Amino acid sequence: MAEKYSYASIARELGVSKALVSSVLRNTSVTTGSSKKTKRQILELAWNNGLRLNSNIGIVIPREVAQNQILYYHGLVGVIEKCSAFGYNLTSMIVDEHSALPEPLRNHEVSALLFWNDLPEEFAHFAAGEKMPFVLLNPQGKHPECDAVSFSDYGTMFKLLRHLYENGYRKFHYLLENNEMSFNCKTSKAFRNFSKQYQIAASILSPEGNDREAILPQLEKLAEKSDGRTAFITFTRFYTIKILEMLSRAGKRIPDDAGVVGSHLLSEFYNPSLTTIEYPFYEMGAAGVEMLHEKWDARQYVLGREKIIEGRILKKDSTVSTNRRNEKHA
Q: What are the tens digits of pLDDT across the range 56-78?
């Protein structure tokens, strides 16, 4: 029977002590006694032979994401359930923008990482140096090239706009809060390209800075001028509420006098219910763990892959008027 690969196997192969191998893999202070070359050799041998310190996965979450539990919760459930299926443990690490490396990371209490939204350069450098596989979930903004699981923001937005077009809407108004986010950049690009391709009247309303109310006077005028060919689109709770307020104040009925696409968190709280985009965060979390599992199983630190998941268009009554429904079923 072949000998199981162990710390002792690495020590014999490299001609170093078992204690040194252990200290490198555990990242203790004794590690400083080894040269960078020796440390790299130890980590390479351990990785190539499927030897890891534990079966713990760490997930690094920006604080602002953790505070928005309504969205974050579904993704975390996907991570937890898939970890359980593979027999992995999970450690959550909530970080701020300039946080130092969390203790579970420094102490090698985890052997692989999931990053949510952002991949801080210091964290990526540490993971690469320690031969710790990682995957970025829902990448936002600029980040180092890496394996990732993301949503098809552009494609999903284009699909939504086609649904509106097919239901007779010809004037689109898209309201954003922060157009620096990756999601907003991609959906705005889809919005502009669709408008140009289909030659429809379209506008993007986005405040400069953080003053969300700055565009409300413009929104109010658009609501007053709206008709059955006008569609208002937003994915934020604040602007969803404001669109509905402005239309009500102008005496407009939804969807006969204007169609509305709103936040999926509010979709079922209104009558008529709101057409929206729903992103499968559960599937994203599960896919991230599956990718880590594949890396461990294949002993492949980098897969060179981005898994893209389509969002779902929830077609509700806020974008299909009574007349249009009758025409469809005639």
A: 899 999 988 888 767 778 899 99
Maximum CA pair distance of the chain? 83
What is the dihedral angle through the alpha carbons of 154, 156, 161, 164, rounded to the nearest 10 degrees?
-170
Domains of the chain: 7-48 (no CATH), 56-146+282-313 (3.40.50.2300), 153-275+315-328 (3.40.50.2300)
Shortest CA distance to 206 belongs to which of 216, 220, 221?
216
Orientation angle between helical segments 18-26 and 7-14, nearest 10 degrees: 120
Phi and psi of 201, rounded to 5°? Answer: -75, 130
Say which residues have a Cβ less than 8 Å from residue 95's Cβ, sequence separation at least 6: 60, 61, 62, 63, 102, 120
> Is the C-alpha dihedral spanning 71, 75, 78, 81 positive or negative?
negative
**The model's pTM:** 0.78
pLDDT over threshold 80, residue 266: yes
Task: Calculate the average pLDDT of the chain.
Answer: 86
> Alpha-carbon Rg of the chain, whole angstroms?
25
CA angle 234, 140, 240 (to 5 degrees): 15
* DSSP element (H, E) containing 126: helix 121-129
pLDDT beyond 90 at 225: yes
Distant-in-sequence contacts of 192-197, Cβ < 8 A, 24+ apart? 193/158, 194/157, 194/158, 194/161, 194/162, 194/165
Type of residue found at 157: M
